[in-house]
Amino acid sequence: MNVVRSVLAVVVGYLIFAVSAVLLFNLSGIDLHAEAGVATVVFVVAFGAVFAFIGGYLAKLIAATKTMIVNYALAILVAGFAAFSFFKSPGTHYTQIAAIFLFAPMSILGGLLRHKSEK
What we know:
The chain contains four helices and no strands. It is an all-alpha fold.
């Protein structure tokens, strides 16, 4: 396994997920720490799940390995930053909870889809 390529794959996968989230909140004006309506929460969670999946898929594509290690590393990174933010940020935490329990697994699922298509 090419370590540099794998690290780059994880970084790119995370950036796809994180930059999309920053753009969503900045362009939409949604305050991620404020109380949100059900429609907003559903939209934000669906958006995050899609981009976590894309990030996982592309991480696996970039890494070009036969294993899912890059996706597990990406999921740990997503969940780790979310857990840190959960304990350090004020307000509501639906985004952090979704990142830990949905977005991290979606990044693995994205890699799994790519893994299955390689066979």
